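#structure-requests
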Amino acid sequence: MSKVNNNQNRNKNSRNNLKNRPFEDKLRPFITADIDKKINDLFSRSVRKIRSENTEFKKEVENLIGRIESEKINQKISDLETELKEIDDKSELDEIKLKLKDLTELSLKYKKDISLLKRKCLPFINVKINDNKPSEVGIVHYQFEELIAIVSTGLNVFLTGPAGSGKTTAANQCAKALNIPFYFTGAIASEFKLTGFIDANGKIVSTEFRKAYENGGLFLFDEIDGSFPQAVLAFNAALANDYMDFPDKRIKRHKNFYCIAAANTYGQGADRQYVGRNQLDAASIDRFIFIDWKYDETLERKLANNDKWVDYVQSIRRVIEKKEIRHIVSPRASFFGAKLLKSNLKRELVESSVLWKGLDNATIELIKKNL
């Protein structure tokens, strides 16, 4: 009887979930395999375009720096400042002050132009670990170099940051830089999802974690703060020692095993935004080097390739943060929105689907008034 009731409740919840998905239902007819392929092609073209733009931006920076050096602006400003101290004639003084003003403004303009160009450049990172051949990782988050520097030491890293900040992508790129396989596990409800088990036929059912631990690779434990505490304790034991007891035998930790955990919290339990998170054991937290992983809005702008839409998304994000509204507008809103707009979907539907996501009208109006 209990099993039947559970199935009925599950079916009921499933029906309720379908009823509460108006935006997904509206979009479903548009998300075809053909559109999915076009989106992937668009992303590839965007990467090639960014690569080309970066080369041009770097040339402009070099040209500007060369111009400043050839025109000796800083030296001229210094000479004029020295000359000012020695002149008493007012007309001559005014003339030198005017020259000094023009040169100072020109110098500031050059510095501003260089700063803007540098901000437009997205690094295509080539990483060399020890004596290995350099690996091209591609376009990276602005904190990536800090991350790979720590991961390459063999220390365990805990990435904590908001949804959509690129934690999984960064972990995958670390594996690419280290030239090792990438293994991934999301939140798990049982330690057997981590360690594996022996099935009824006596066969070992392995896991992503075991493959990385036994054979080498980078293992990402995503949403660790949403996992069953016993599973996290088992994970902690594996990190604390150079061996791990699996269902069939004890396995020594591979020399090329690297580990990243990712979460939306610092492991201190649920907060206003992420209410389904568990508090992590202090011993587990102590095993990690923490990195506060933030949104990279320059990368967001480049990959979305729709400045007008991204400006709108980022301004909404700032209002939400300022007003402390319990709502997430991640870079995915920029990526998904730009793709949907390019497919000629109506702006109103796109906003409802990727920005507002069921927010009440009063809150939406509050956000818009503060843009």
